[in-house]
Specification:
Layout (H helix, E strand, L loop, with lengths): L11 E5 L16 H15 L3 E7 L8 E5 L2 E6 L16 H15 L12 E5 L1 H14 L3 E4 L4 H5 L11 H13 L2 E4 L2 H11 L6 E3 L14 H8 L5 E6 L8 H14 L7 E6 L5 H17 L6 E4 L7 H7 L2 E4 L8 H8 L4 E4 L2 H4 L8 E4 L4 H13 L1 H15 L4 H16 L5
Parallel strand pairs: 1-2, 1-5, 2-4, 5-6, 6-7, 7-8, 9-10, 9-12, 10-11, 12-13, 13-14
Antiparallel strand pairs: 3-4
Helix pairs in contact: 1-15, 2-3, 3-5, 7-10, 8-13, 11-14
Amino acid sequence: MKQPFEQTEKSRVAMISLHTSPRDQPGTGDSGGMNVYILSVAERLAEQGIAVDVFTRCRGEGASQVEDLAPGSRLIRVQAGPCAPVPKEELPGLLPDFLGGILTHAAVDDPRDARNHPPYDVIHSHYWLSGWVGARAKEIWGVPHVTSFHTLGKVKNGALAEGDRPEPPHRVAGEQGIVRAADRILAPTTAEATNLVKLYAADPGRIRIVSPGVDRRVFAPQPRDEAKVRLGMAGVRLVLFVGRLQPLKGPDVAIAAMAEAVRMAPEVMGDVILAVVGGPSGAATGLAEIARLERFARRQGIAERVSFFPAQPHARLADFYSAAEMVLMPSRSESFGLVALEAHSCGTPVIGASVAGLRAIVANGETGYLLEAREPTAYARRIVTLLADRALAERMGRAAAVRAGGFSWDATSREIHAIYGEVASGRAA
């Protein structure tokens, strides 16, 4: 019998994303770059002739159980626990029910002869919760399991900010088990591949480095003044922060850096404001976190210079990136940093922390700056430098757009397609 991914019969992939749906708004709750990744890859794999089903947990979206994402790609909502939002710390208890829902749906939905085929040719899980489900489905169906972690518990615990809770031991143990059992582990950077080997004793032969991409049809350089008009922000210069409002991402560092830059060079900063775009993580602490940041801006004396925007539709971010003079990313940890890539694709420099994910995107001194220090003063100096030297900022913006040209979702999906073929055919690592 011919192997899947090398035959005329359409191959089928089960993507698993339990805790967040590709339809969720990035920048709120637990939604972020992973949502963009899954949706972008699923759509392009479908264009390459692979039938992709993305399984997520029903959370009361009011939509049908099965929804088309693109021709050949579906989103399947599985009920596990209440069809409503559930705190993330309670999700591990719902894993068996979620697995059962996937198995039930696959048993009644498989269009092929179940006696000769499992319902899917490859399982691709995203995040450790989904990895647990993927590992069990592999055992039941007898098909290979590819996993993408997107973030690693041990790495996050090594970069905790004040106020952040450490990742629980059961997450780290779950990741360890998935690392041992997965046929392939996709890492976005060489740095994450190294962490998988050093921190989790992963087999290097099972790791494949696949960079995420960017849609350059959406994220492309636009005239800055026109973008500002579309945002209703004409007449000011814009420094931008985009991301979930949590200590790990450093929105407080961005606000403090803005205040320090105003004190450092008031003549340069006269018409500059900081736009903070994103929502908080977790419904319970959400409003409290926004209120805390607003109070912090008042204490810093720049409340009138900080504008908070809710999480935006993904394509809408292109206007923010294009309107901005620069994007600040003072994160304690980034697996990849899709915000930096999208900003670069719009021709915007990035001032960020020198963490693994950002080092894969930002060329220090060429497309922006990467800082070892987390002190706001270090960020303030770079903010003033770029605002005061327009020629430098424009040169960095042009270099940023060129660098982003080396990333695309088409390339990402082709590499993943090849990896599916590798594991489905049983080729050795």
